[in-house]
Design a protein that fits this description.
mainly alpha; two-stranded antiparallel sheet; 5 helices; elongated
């Protein structure tokens, strides 16, 4: 399967100063996915506990939200939609970490780097949103309203691209 390797600036986005270099993402996510899977394994093999079902549900939900965020951010270029998803992802990871601590402390500790990374990614998503929103507000004074595609948050323009989302999903499941 081909993953998302688009240029974030192709949509006119301004890269925040806190954005890490692109080469950092593959090794970080490889490590995080190993930790995520190991945490789930530890919960599965742990002694019976009345919170196990909740942790299974939270683990599955975080994986779904994590998977959903990527095509929304990189495929549809929907910064606001991606921000909502990543906020729900952060909440899910937080509760998984908190509840799994009651079942297996190591499983919770294994999720801590993931929580830290998603915290950073949430701030980065917000930075992209704010910088793009500010730039779009400045540009909107020089462009006619017919050139604006989507209106969100105080009239700022975001280029949600359903065609790119579908294209990305085809590659994702190919």
């Amino acid at each position: 399967a081909v993953w998302f390797a688009g240029d974030l600036n192709a949509n006119g986005w301004i890269m925040p100063n806190i954005a890490p270099p692109s080469w950092l993402f593959p090794p970080v996510w490889t490590i995080l996915y190993i930790l995520i899977a190991t945490s789930a394994h530890r919960i599965i093999i742990a002694e019976p506990h009345y919170f196990k079902g909740v942790t299974y549900a939270l683990w599955a939900l975080q994986l779904c939200l994590n998977t959903l965020w990527t095509p929304v951010f990189f495929g549809a270029y929907d910064l606001f939609g991606a921000l909502l998803i990543i906020i729900f992802l952060w909440i899910t990871i937080f509760f998984y970490t908190f509840i799994s601590y009651k079942i297996d402390r190591i499983a919770a500790y294994l999720f801590s780097p993931y929580l830290a990374w998603v915290s950073f990614a949430t701030i980065l998503n917000l930075e992209y949103l704010e910088l793009t929103s500010w730039t779009d507000r400045e540009q909107s004074t020089s462009h006619s309203s017919s050139n604006r595609r989507y209106q969100f948050l105080n009239g700022s323009r975001f280029s949600a691209r359903p065609d790119l989302l579908m294209h990305s999903l085809v590659y994702l499941f190919d």
